[in-house]
Specification:
By secondary structure, this protein is α+β, with helices and mostly antiparallel strands. The chain contains one helix and five strands, in the order H-E-E-E-E-E. Helices cover 19% and strands 29% of the residues. Strand 3 (61-63) and strand 4 (72-79) form a beta hairpin.
C-alpha cells in the first residue's frame, strides 16, 4: 500500500497496471531528469518491454516501478537474484 492514497487512487492504479499487463509487451514513457545524462536527456521517449531475469546483462538499461515513479538505471552488477543499478549522470 502506498501511503496517502485514497481507495479511488488505488483502484485507478490497479486499473493502470492491468491495462499495461494485458495490452502489450511494450510501453513507452518520457524520460525526466538528468540522472542518465548523456545517454538519456529530458523528454526522450523510452520504450519499455518486459524481459526475463535470465536475459539481463551488465550495462543494460532498466526501468522499474517504485511507488508512482518509474526510475531508469544501468545494471552495473548482477549476483544471484540481486542487481546493483546506477545512474549515468
Amino acid at each position: 500500500m502506498i501511503l496517502g492514497m485514497t481507495d479511488a487512487d488505488r483502484i485507478r492504479l490497479i486499473g493502470k497496471e492491468l491495462q499495461v499487463e494485458l495490452s502489450s509487451t511494450e510501453n513507452s514513457l518520457y524520460f525526466h531528469g538528468t540522472s542518465m545524462s548523456p545517454f538519456l536527456q529530458e523528454g526522450d521517449l523510452v520504450i519499455v518491454r518486459s524481459v526475463a531475469w535470465k536475459d539481463l546483462r551488465l550495462g543494460d538499461i532498466v526501468t522499474y516501478r517504485h511507488e508512482e515513479k518509474f526510475p531508469t538505471r544501468r545494471i552495473v552488477r548482477i549476483w544471484g537474484d540481486w542487481l546493483t543499478l546506477r545512474c549515468d549522470g
